[in-house]
Amino acid sequence: MLIAAVRAAGLVKRYGNRTALHGLDIEVAPGEVFGFLGPNGAGKTTTIRLMLDLIRPTAGTIEVLGKDPRRGGPQLRRRIGYLPGELHLEGRQTAADLLAFLAARRGGVRAGRITELAELLDLDLSRQVRKLSKGNKQKVGIVQAFMHDPALLVLDEPTSGLDPLLQHRFLDLVRAARDDGRTVFMSSHVLSEVQEVADRAVIMRGGRVLATEDVDDLRKRALRNVEIAFGGPVALADFTGLPGVRDVSVDGSVLRCTTEGSADALVKAAARHTVHSIRSTEPDLEEIFFAYYGGRE
User: Fold this and answer.
1) Which helix or strand (DSSP H or E) is residue 208 part of?
2) Per its UniProt record, what CDD domains does this chain match (predicted)?
3) Which residues contact 288 (CB under 8 A, 6 or more apart)?
């Protein structure tokens, strides 16, 4: 019987009169990339801190790599790579010295691994940590999480501050970890990021699980906000009732709508007119919640 990489049962966390988690039940399989989605205040960071024994539960149980985080000690910590959502690095040492220090605390890393990761992320290891930009500090955080090839990676909003190219390189690192049989627990408020790499995702809201989704199913019905500028005025009637298209509005020569899943019907209808430009963006997570789950709490 396989031991779950992460298992929570009836997990509750209260801060005074405020309840951050209301009986969370999750199970993450070994070798899985598990997305943990939700807006700020959903309970994502609280769950991660409970996993790492940075805080203690009010009720319920949690196990990480088959161990109680309270009793796992340094042996359990060495098997985890953690990137916090708020990374504070202000030391005078260089990035190379900081990473060497952290590597020693974890029992060492394989030769060349830090340099390999730094080159992938375009990180200058010779610069003082306190002089690095937010994005470069995030790169240091990513390197320290991945460098010892941990059995479990716990990543809280990992692409914050990274430019789009480096976001893609980071996702490649996640894929490589999965291919190597390691488990990735990735918290994010960006649905498209999780859709790129995750196998399953839990969607949180207000400290409760709203849904557990297979990411392939989420991808098939992905929402996009679309704006099309035409060469001249178009009729609303030409675009109403199209499969997978809703919330259609027309302002002269500009059409705005939301697509779910395939945009094929919309593209074919638009092709009957002169198209100047198309802009497609992902809705924020709150819009997605209301679209998928009827806004239920």
Assistant:
1) strand 208-214
2) ABC_DR_subfamily_A
3) 191, 223
Q: pTM score, two decimals?
A: 0.83
Q: Is the pLDDT of residue 176 over 90?
A: yes
The dotted CATH code for 6-218 is 3.40.50.300
Q: Are 287 and 205 in contact (CB under 8 A)?
A: no
Return the sign of the alpha-carbon dihedral for residues 196, 197, 199, 200: negative
How does pLDDT run across 248-257, given as a tens digit for each residue? 999 999 999 9
Instruction: Write down the pLDDT at residue 166.
Output: 93
CA distances from 229 to 147, 216, 223, 244, 254 (A): 47, 31, 20, 20, 5
| 158-182 residues labelled b (16+ CB within 10 A) or e (exposed) | bbbbbeeebbebbbebbeebbeeeb
SS3 15: strand
Domain boundaries, the chain: 6-218, 223-281
Average pLDDT over residues 116-142: 95
Integer angstrom CA distances of residue 19 from 11, 46, 212: 11, 11, 21
CATH of 223-281, one of 3.30.390, 1.10.10, 3.10.450, 3.30.70: 3.30.70
Q: Both tokens of residue 149?
A: 């090839």
**H or E, element range at 242:** none
Residue 151: pLDDT band (50, 70, 90) is: very high
| Amino acid, res. 56 | R
Give every CB contact of residue 34 below 8 A, 6+ residues apart in sequence.
Answer: 6, 28, 183, 184, 185, 186, 198, 199, 200, 201, 202
Contact status, residue 38 vs residue 190, Cβ threshold 8 Å: no
More confident residue, 10 or 220: 10
